[in-house]
From TrEMBL:
UniProt superkingdom: Archaea
GO biological process, one term: potassium ion transport
Ranges of residues in domain DDH: 154-296
Residues covered by the DHHA1 domain: 355-459
Gene Ontology molecular function: any one: nucleic acid binding
The name this protein goes by in its record: Phosphoesterase RecJ domain-containing protein
């Protein structure tokens, strides 16, 4: 679930708040206009009467995904923008420039905000949209951009891609090929989940699997699908020039690309690619259409999670071209023995506190068994949030699921594990990766005792984070866990 923080609430801010969708986000408005606060509260909009640029106030707030600086005055918006960027460095910030900006103001806004709303430009853009736009504009812009790229194009999914990423990459590669630009759908890592492998194999999708540190010199341009930043959840260089980004997740920082299409209200990136593909290829390829529909169904959990009207429209567009027999084969693959064993260990080892269940499954060979185990725990009576983790070499992989309305798993895992690894995801579906350097120095007799301590630390950190109020730091286990997760092999004396 996206958390939007609005700092200041002038004319533009007020109009924007009234148009925000209610179903896919949490919202907090901070303004020192007492009358505006009362009006917003009467309309059931969460609002706080305070100075939007107050550092103490910003320090007390939960980390937002998106910040909108929306007062009327340029000077106050600039101050709020400066302090918001300092307090929330990874948030995506949209800032309204205000009515009387100087050149110095414009420079500061451009440097600090991810997007700047300039009233003069906005009026001109609105006139152009009303007089020249058509439903095919997005397709026209993408076509022109693709035609200007140097080939071949590497369409890169996130590591260990899911069906949405796979389908989106295949669709964008097909679009590129249709305008004469050769393209490869590419990924790092493994496709190990049974359904994901079945999707690739049954539909005979031609994907390229990069080895770690693979040379990328043969590609003249790069596109990212289902994620938006190189080096974040992929193994690309962080400074790689990216030509195209198409995603549906809210960005957690600036998106470095020449062509960006972020549809946060879409339930899947496959939904966005379906719209593009319809513009380029009226006769949709059967395999690609089947993959896209499956990608939408998986990412929206059969149209029950963060779904939008656009997802239903995309599904309706795809359905006449889908191979339903193949779709059934993908959705009903046989479970491997190791996956069943992992699920059994999660059930056996679970620790339940209230409606929350956590389980370590010990050493595993397939990390994709973890989300299946988390899904299975969630079906047990009395459980509405599940947390499962396992060990592969010196890494801990975590998968969590929830159907509780008052839980944001993405924020919970970030609070619990950001200082000792990487974590994130959606409100009802999230994951984390933690490195245990100490295991590399341990002998066989020590491993079991170390793993036992690590299991306790991870479980306790998770329960502490989920029981805390949003934004409350986790402190009780910090020292022990940071030592465990950062200890390297000692230098020889």
């Amino acid at each position: 679930m996206v958390f939007r923080l609005v700092l200041g609430c002038g004319t533009v801010g007020r109009q924007t708040i009234g148009r925000l969708p209610e179903c896919d986000s949490r919202l907090l408005v901070v303004t020192d206009d007492e009358q505006t606060v009362e009006t917003l509260r009467d309309e059931s909009v969460p609002a706080r009467d305070a100075d939007p640029a107050d550092p103490a106030l910003l320090e007390s707030l939960e980390r937002p995904d998106i910040v909108f600086v929306a007062g009327d005055r340029t000077d106050r918006n600039r101050l709020a923008l400066e302090r918001a960027r300092d307090r929330f460095p990874t948030a995506s910030i949209v800032a309204y420039l205000g009515g009387k900006p100087t050149e110095e103001d414009r420079t500061a806004f451009d440097e600090l905000a991810d997007r700047v709303v300039d009233p003069e430009l906005a009026i001109g853009d609105a006139v152009l949209r009303e007089t020249t736009s058509s439903p095919a504009d997005a397709g026209i812009r993408l076509r022109r951009h693709l035609q200007g790229l140097e080939g071949p194009l590497a369409v890169v999914m996130h590591d260990n891609p899911d069906p949405d990423a796979i389908a989106s990459a295949v669709a964008l590669a097909e679009i590129a090929e249709s305008v004469g630009l050769s393209a490869d759908p590419c990924y790092f890592g493994r496709i190990s989940h049974q359904e994901n492998r079945a999707m690739v194999n049954v539909l005979d999708l031609d994907l390229r699997n990069f080895e770690p540190n693979a040379s990328l010199e043969e590609y003249g341009s790069f596109a990212l699908v289902d994620h938006s930043r190189p080096g974040v959840n992929d193994q690309l260089p962080e400074d790689l020039h990216v030509d195209i980004v198409i995603d549906h997740h809210p960005p957690r920082g600036p998106v470095p690309s020449d062509y960006v299409d972020l549809r946060e209200h879409a339930g899947a990136t496959s939904t966005v690619l379906t719209e593009y593909l319809e513009r380029f290829e009226p006769a949709l390829d059967r395999a690609v259409a089947t993959a896209l529909l499956y990608g939408i169904r998986v990412d929206t959990d059969e149209f029950t999670r963060e779904v939008s009207a656009a997802d239903f429209e995309a599904a309706a567009t795809l359905w006449p071209h889908v191979d339903t027999d193949v779709l059934r084969q993908i959705e009903q693959p046989s479970l491997e023995g190791e996956t069943l064993e992992t699920i059994a260990r999660a059930i056996k080892n679970r620790e339940q506190r209230g409606s929350v269940a956590a389980a370590s499954v010990g050493r595993i060979g397939d990390r994709d068994a973890l989300p299946q185990a988390a899904d299975r725990l969630l079906t047990m009576e009395g459980v509405d949030t599940s947390f499962v983790f396992g060990f592969i070499e010196e890494m801990v992989f975590v998968s969590a699921r929830s159907r509780a309305t008052d839980v944001d798993l993405g924020e919970t895992l970030r609070d619990a594990f950001d200082r000792i690894g990487s974590a994130g995801g959606h409100a009802d579906m999230a994951g984390a990766q933690l490195e245990i350097g100490i295991l590399g120095t341990a002998d066989d007799e020590q491993v079991d005792s170390i793993v036992s301590v690590v299991e306790e630390v991870i479980t306790d950190r998770f329960f502490e984070a989920i029981e805390s109020q949003p934004g409350t730091p986790v402190g009780s286990y910090t020292q022990t866990s940071e030592v465990l997760f950062s200890l390297e092999e000692p230098e020889a004396e």
